[in-house]
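testing teh design pipeline on a random one, pls ignore if ur not involved
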């Protein structure tokens, strides 16, 4: 029997159905499990807590597969989990048989496959596996997904550096069927995108900002808009379609900006009303300040500034810095849509940082809307870490 027992008193998070067991909580490891093996997990008193996947070199030493029965984790188990993900998405308006849409089908721990992200882009799936447990079942997951959805192809985008923490190799390859090297077209709320499944960030694109992008399109009419960290231009394209006076798109990535420019044409939007600049946002915002420029609507959607607890302070300073600069650039009555995708930054802290930034900028500001994750990126109530994306829409006097 492969099993782990927890130290006395350390079963509490498991009884609350939190899916992680940290290395410091473990008392004994029995049966010499190897990377990704299924293990039975017991409290110090010997009560069965659930089945988990073992990961010997990770700080998160085990991730729970379930909290109920003692069972073998196999194809049948994963088939049920996938069926549930498909049904839940369907009930939320995301149809897996639609060949045009794009959404997140499996959101890792929150959908019962720890460390596994499955995103749908038209007739393709892009999968990122970040845990040893899901790694063991990757072939089974690909097979089940193909059977259940009739998709054309699956790409595995397990090329994120965090895999090395779990002792896993980096991998980017076709996992099933055919995956084109050409970008895959996608229609998101009437805006057309081309998703590069091979080289796009993460699984190809940032599906999680779909609702926020739509909202920006609704409030951009007649405004001068600055879209910072624009990637392939999402927020800016929505703003332009929504009737913005001019949109400024800024990103450090030349490749992303090339796609952003092409998408203006693809969406038949006026090229004279949009400007693309390759720059570091921190520098760009300072240059705008020095030139005395103003904007009516600014979007700040930076990458994750906080990767671990050690970088919390440094990351928080980064958020403060860009928000302070952006608030200073707002015209009277101007608005800032500001986001953080750092899981370790809680909404309360984020809100405090924005409040401090407004105070330092000597601008009176109100929060008028809040943003979060859309329904295809659910968060289990027992897993607050699943809530990584947060945003505020603020308006200054
Ligand atoms: N808002 C985008 C997603 C942004 S992802 C969307 O809706 O699709 C974050 C982006 O920030 C990436 O494109 C990355 O290239 C860019 N980036 C990271 N650091 C940067 C910096 N210092 N200055 C400018 N862009 C940066």
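output:
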């Amino acid at each position: 029997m492969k099993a782990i027992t927890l130290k006395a008193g350390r079963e509490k998070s498991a009884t609350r159905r939190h899916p992680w067991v940290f290395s410091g909580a473990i008392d004994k490891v029995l049966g010499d499990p190897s990377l990704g093996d299924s293990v039975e997990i017991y409290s110090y008193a010997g009560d069965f807590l659930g089945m988990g996947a073992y990961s010997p070199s990770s700080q998160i030493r085990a991730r729970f597969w379930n909290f109920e029965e003692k069972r073998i984790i196999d194809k049948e188990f994963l088939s049920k989990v996938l069926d549930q993900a498909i049904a839940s998405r369907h009930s939320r308006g995301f149809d897996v048989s639609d060949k045009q849409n794009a959404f997140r089908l499996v959101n890792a721990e929150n959908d019962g496959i720890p460390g596994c992200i499955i995103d749908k882009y038209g007739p393709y799936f892009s999968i990122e596996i970040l845990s040893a447990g899901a790694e063991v079942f990757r072939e089974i997951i690909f097979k089940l997904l193909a059977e259940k959805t009739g998709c054309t192809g699956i790409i595995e985008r397990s090329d994120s550096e965090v895999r090395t923490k779990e002792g896993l190799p980096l991998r980017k390859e076709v996992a099933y069927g055919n995956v084109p090297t050409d970008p895959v077209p996608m229609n998101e709320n009437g805006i057309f995108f081309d998703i590069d499944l091979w080289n796009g960030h993460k699984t190809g694109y940032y599906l999680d900002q779909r609702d926020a992008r739509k909202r920006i399109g609704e409030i951009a009419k007649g405004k001068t808009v600055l879209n910072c960290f624009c990637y392939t231009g999402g927020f800016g394209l929505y703003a332009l379609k929504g009737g913005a006076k001019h949109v400024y798109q800024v990103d450090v990535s030349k490749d992303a900006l090339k796609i952003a420019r092409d998408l203006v044409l693809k969406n038949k939007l006026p090229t004279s009303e949009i400007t693309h600049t390759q720059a570091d946002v921190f520098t760009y915002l300072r240059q705008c300040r020095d030139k005395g420029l103003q904007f009516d609507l600014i979007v700040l959607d930076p990458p994750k500034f906080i990767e671990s607890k050690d970088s919390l302070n440094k990351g928080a300073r980064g958020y403060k810095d860009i928000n302070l600069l952006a608030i200073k650039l707002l015209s009277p009555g101007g608005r800032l849509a500001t986001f953080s995708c750092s899981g370790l930054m809680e909404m309360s802290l984020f809100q405090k940082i924005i409040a401090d930034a407004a105070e330092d900028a000597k601008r009176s500001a109100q929060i008028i809307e809040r943003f979060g994750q859309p329904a295809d990126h659910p968060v289990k109530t027992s897993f607050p870490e699943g809530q990584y994306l947060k945003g505020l829409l603020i308006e200054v006097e």
